[in-house]
Amino acid sequence: MIKRFTSSDLDKKYLASRRYEAIPIKADFSKLVVNKPWGYEYLMLNTPAIEVWHLFIKQHHATSMHCHPNKKTALLVLEGKAIFSSLNKSIELGPLDTVIIDAGVFHSTQALSLGGIYVLEYETPPMKHDLVRLEDKYGRALIGYEGVDKMVANGKEHPRFLGSNKKIGKTLDLYDNRASIQTIAGVNSLKKLLTVNSVALVLSGSICSGNKELYKTGDVIDKLPDQKCQIKNLSLFVINRPK
Q1: CA distances from 184 to 197, 203, 217 (A)
Q2: In 10 A of CB 164, how many CB atoms?
Q3: Which residues contact 152 (CB under 8 A, 6 or more apart)?
Q4: Hey, do 2-158 and 167-240 end up sharing a CATH topology, with the first three levels equal?
Q5: CA-closest candidate to residue 57, choices 101, 114, 95
Q6: 24-33, 53-62, 112-121, 185-194: segment of lowest average pLDDT
Q7: How does DSSP classify residue 14?
Q8: Could you state, in order of their start, the residue ranges of all structural domains in the chain?
Q9: Number of H-type helices and E-type strands within the chain
Q10: What CATH code would you report for 167-240?
């Protein structure tokens, strides 16, 4: 399942009521893990246009009700069950379920599973400081992104598509899933990748039908949109869950 959340009048109202100051963070996230009161997160993959973060959320814990005023994000559940909430509705998510979140949409993710949940977060453009918290049960509602005191050196147990691992076709195991970076030459190659148990993030390039651009950088797809679609310099981050 892929579901999109767009900015509502309520989102706009609350965002307008919050002071927002975007100050870039000076940190090499490729070598760090960021501890959170609900778990942790770390940078798994990055390009000039997009970042992929890996999150672990402990059972019964949740991220703040927050938004990103200037970037689009998406959340994909790798393992476990979660409740995703906007200001207007809540839905339950399981493995490979994905939500696409437009800029300015307040949202929160809560872990239901006993062992917590593992989630990928896609962000475009890369702006970790682009954050406004509306509510937070850990007392961070008026605070920006975590400071350096919450950042620790990377452990070897955290898989990343960085450096030598950032190769086309390189595969990493993520719980019951396999993740890889793939370049797509044509429709037939795309069709083979997008099986019933696959979801792909567009890292670069586009998928078009006639003069209409169907998918571009930052979009998430789980099926071939049109047998007659055109592939243009397409690179994907693919998550596959073998049966």
Answers
A1: 18, 11, 14
A2: 6
A3: 32, 33, 35
A4: yes
A5: 114
A6: 185-194
A7: H
A8: 2-158, 167-240
A9: 2, 19
A10: 2.60.120
The one-letter code for the residue type at 242 is P
Cβ atoms of 74 and 68 within 8 Å: the answer is: no
Question: Which stretches within 148-222 are classed as H helix?
Answer: 187-193
DSSP-derived letter for residue 10 is H
Full-model pTM:
0.91
pLDDT digits 0-9 by tens, 184-215: 888 878 877 888 788 999 998 988 877 788 88
Cis peptide, bond prior to residue 37, ω within 30 of zero: no
**Cα-to-chain-centroid distance, residue 195:** 20
Local structure of 31: helix, strand or coil:
helix
Backbone angles phi, psi at 55, to 5 degrees: -115, 140
8 A C-beta contact, residue 3 and residue 98: yes
Amino acid (1-letter code) at residue 128? K
Residue indicated by tokens 């620790």: 152
Which H/E stretch holds residue 190? helix 187-193
In the chain, how long is the greatest CA-to-CA distance? 52
CATH number of 2-158: 2.60.120.10
Whether the CB-CB separation of 34 and 146 falls below 8 Å is answered with yes
Q: Convert the pLDDT of each residue in 158-172 to its tens digit.
A: 888 887 677 777 788
Q: For residues 169 and 184, give the distance between their C-alpha atoms in angstroms, rounded to a whole number.
A: 11
- Buried (b) or exposed (e) across 50-78, using 16+ Cβ within 10 A? bbbbbbbbbeebbbbbbbbbebbbbbbbb
In residues, how long is the chain? 243
